[in-house]
Design a protein that fits this description.
It is built from 24 helices and 25 strands. The chain is α/β, with parallel strands linked by helices and about 750 residues long. A hairpin with a 2-residue loop joins strand 23 and strand 24.
Length: about 750
């Protein structure tokens, strides 16, 4: 360590949030994520700091999550999974068993299924059936599956805290009804400890707790929908008139955290790091000292782009490691997004100790670049989701975090800080005259608005909000107004709009859609009104349509040049930026068309892929699965491996042809045709008649004869964005495209 190294402060800032999974306050939770993450992440993410005297962390707790802890731990709430787990096997019907077979493998295969022989055997057995066969599993296997699913979600640290858990894990199989009930009760015991433990760690100065608006709404949109820079306003209301809701949700959150943790939060984590000047003015009026957003927002706000080299090292980190004071009076810090993405998506693929050492070295490289800084105090902010990535790590991230915290605690030139304490000590906050409205994703709000299905969801919300306001004016003393208002606030949460439309897919979008519409209906139910019939119609029905189908036959030039009119009548699908990184998206747009003899495909390659020196060397693959609509030929299942454990219905479809398109090191290496053969198998076909060119775009001409489709047959097909055999995104994800030639 260099003697003249400037001390660097590090703020670890973990965000903890889940949406409302209940249909009513007394009903079961439809998804189990609160309970499962409660025994895996929420507690041990702070108790781990007791291993290190000088390690401090910051945690953002969304109030609706704490309410769920109270439901589970104190009120004895159940979700569908836990309710089945404590049900005697003989009382399960076929529908229950089908749910178990479809949902009790929701766990990371490598770290949570494979290490347990019986769980892995059951997983392999389930995978051997294309369709669910409830009679293929014995009662004991159902009991074992439920027990193992619930146990693998426990963080490994609890094995020493709960000897009975260790004993049950060692048992491996042959679990009884009593065993399953014991497992659920151990989970409740952990959940009951979460809030008191946070309160204790705050009092001891090891943790600072902040909050977000109560039900996690996107405040800039509620405050002023016109500030969202929306390009597609079709179906959107011109004004939401929800600024009062934004204030009430924020104030209620501050009150709730103060009530449960004992200290009023000084900081606000804006939902999804969505920020605007109106939002900061609101925060200031409520006594909030500081807030946070992403480095992209800072770059746009100060007109300074952060440049990184091919290893991801920032050339000039100075502006990102400073605190700011907005003209509203609210202080601002900005997170380093590269580090957050490394922890979330890259480091789980490497040895945990080596990954932690790599991050430590990155921190030291950044620190070395601050020697010429005119200031003494610098803050590196590592802010990210604190719950969703750790199951991808060995030992639920314990090896990684312990190694990282140890390296930092042994380095006298580094310190971890509570953010409020750092901001109190730092008197030289840089002025921030403007703040760019946007989020952590692409510096805009397009993951929650500005897309047909999302816009329609906002219109639904606006309609219900207007009906609610009208009722309150006419019946101000109605005793159920507060209950209806709560339902309305739930529907303002970010998660519904995140999962609607493109590009995100939860594998459970139908459940999110159902929850959203049911909570909108609840507003009317509490007010004694009949819900509008349109709320019975799923919004998902319009979620996966291409932007247009072919208008007629085309005869395009196959030259790889982007600027020509020969594709003007083609069908097209526009692919929005993904929720994480631009480099995850292979293409920006796909066009498709036909004449009497050929299928034509055009892929507009994401320019970021080819211009970035790192991603240019990656391998990108697109698969096209096709079949004739009469299904006369032998059909085989999609043979790609799921990237997640979520199984979309479209993955169960079978096809006659598989077309592989591979872009390697920025070059189109090959286009390969694979044919289905009997017994669900595939064999290499002849690709000699397929014409393909890549220059500005990728153009393909594929004879229908090569696909065994005659002149009278229609064709059905789907695109799968993939990498090395792992399916990533189905385009579209809930329907097959078709070309009608009859």
């Amino acid at each position: 360590m260099m003697s003249n190294t400037k001390k660097l402060s590090i703020a670890f800032y973990w965000h903890m949030h889940q949406p409302v999974y209940q249909l009513s306050p007394d009903g079961d939770y439809l998804m189990a994520w609160v309970r499962l993450h409660a025994v895996k992440d929420y507690l041990d993410m702070i108790t781990i700091t007791d291993n290190y005297k000088n390690i401090k962390v910051n945690v953002n707790l969304v109030p609706v999550l704490l309410d769920a802890f109270i439901d589970y731990g104190i009120k004895g709430a159940h979700d569908l999974h836990s309710r089945l787990t404590v049900t005697p096997i003989e009382e399960l019907n076929d529908e229950d068993k089908e749910f178990i077979l479809n949902n009790f493998f929701d766990a990371n295969y490598k770290t949570m299924i494979y290490p347990y022989p019986e769980y892995n055997r059951l997983f392999q057995k389930r995978q051997s059936f294309r369709e669910v066969d409830v009679n293929a599993f014995t009662d004991q296997e159902y009991s074992d599956l439920m027990a193992l699913f619930n146990m693998v979600w426990f963080d490994p640290v609890y094995v020493k805290d709960y000897p009975l858990l260790k004993k049950l894990l060692k048992k491996g199989k042959n679990y009884t009804y009593e065993d399953r009930c014991t497992i659920i009760e151990m989970q409740r015991d952990i959940i009951r400890k979460i809030i008191p433990t946070y309160k204790d760690f705050v009092e001891r100065g090891k943790v600072e707790v902040t909050t977000s608006p109560y039900y996690h709404p996107i405040l800039p949109i509620l405050l002023d929908i016109n500030s969202a820079n929306i390009s597609n306003k079709e179906g959107l209301p011109s004004n939401l008139k929800m600024s009062l809701d934004a204030k009430m949700q924020t104030e209620a959150a501050l009150d709730r955290i103060e009530e449960l943790i004992g200290v009023r939060p000084r900081g606000i984590w804006p939902s999804e790091h969505c920020i605007s000047s109106q939002e900061l003015e609101l925060f200031k009026s409520l006594g909030v000292d500081w807030s946070i957003s992403d480095e992209g927002i800072l770059a746009s706000s100060i007109n300074f782009e952060f440049i990184r080299d091919f290893k991801g090292y920032m050339e000039e980190p100075y502006h990102l490691v400073k605190s700011y004071e907005h003209k509203s009076g609210v202080k601002m810090i900005f997170r380093n997004s590269m580090i957050s993405n490394l922890i979330s998506f890259e480091y789980p693929n490497f040895d945990s100790e080596l990954a932690a050492k790599d991050l430590y070295e990155r921190i030291k490289v950044m620190q070395s670049k601050l020697l010429s800084s005119p200031d003494e105090n610098h803050l590196l902010t590592i802010a990210m989701d604190g719950e969703n990535c750790w199951e991808n790590y060995p030992q639920d991230g314990n090896i990684f975090l312990n190694t990282l915290y140890k390296l930092i605690s042994e380095d006298d030139s580094l310190e971890t800080v509570l953010i409020s304490e750092y901001l109190d000590k730092e008197k030289n906050h840089k002025p921030l005259n403007k703040i760019q409205a946007g989020s952590w994703i692409n510096r805009n709000f397009k993951l929650w608005i500005d897309e047909p299905i999302k816009n329609l969801a906002w219109q639904y919300l606006k309609n219900v909000r207007d009906d609610f306001s009208k009722f309150v004016k006419q019946h101000p003393l109605n005793m159920h107004i507060e209950d209806a208002k709560k339902e309305l606030f739930i529907c303002e949460g970010s998660d519904w709009f995140w999962w609607y439309g493109e590009p995100n897919d939860s594998g459970r979008d139908n459940i999110f859609d159902y929850l959203f519409r049911e909570h909108l209906k609840n507003v009317y139910v509490y007010l004694g009104l009949e819900p509008p019939e349109y709320l019975d119609e799923p919004l998902l029905s319009m979620a996966t349509k291409p932007s247009r189908y072919p208008k007629g036959e085309i005869k395009p030039l196959i030259d790889g040049e982007e600027d020509d009119d020969s594709w003007i009548n083609a069908g097209c699908i526009d692919i929005p930026d993904g929720p994480v990184l631009k480099e995850n998206k292979f293409f920006d747009r796909i066009c498709f068309g036909y004449d009497k003899d050929n299928l034509y495909l055009r892929f507009y390659v994401n320019n970021y892929v080819l211009s970035n020196p790192v991603t240019k060397n990656w391998i990108y693959q697109m698969y096209v699965y096709t079949r004739n609509s009469s299904k006369k030929h032998s059909l085989s299942p999609i043979r790609l491996i799921n990237k997640t454990d979520d199984v979309l219905p479209i993955t169960k479809q079978k096809f006659h042809n598989e077309i592989q398109i591979s872009l390697i090191h920025g070059e189109l290496k090959f286009v390969r045709l694979i044919k289905s053969i009997p017994n669900n198998l595939w064999a290499l076909g002849s690709s000699k008649d397929i014409k393909f060119v890549f220059d500005k775009v990728i153009d393909l001409q594929i004879p229908f004869d090569s696909l065994d489709i005659n002149h009278e047959e229609n064709m059905e097909f789907v695109f799968v964005n993939a990498a090395v055999g792992l399916n990533d995104v189905f385009i579209p994800n809930e329907m097959l495209l078709n070309i009608r030639r009859d």
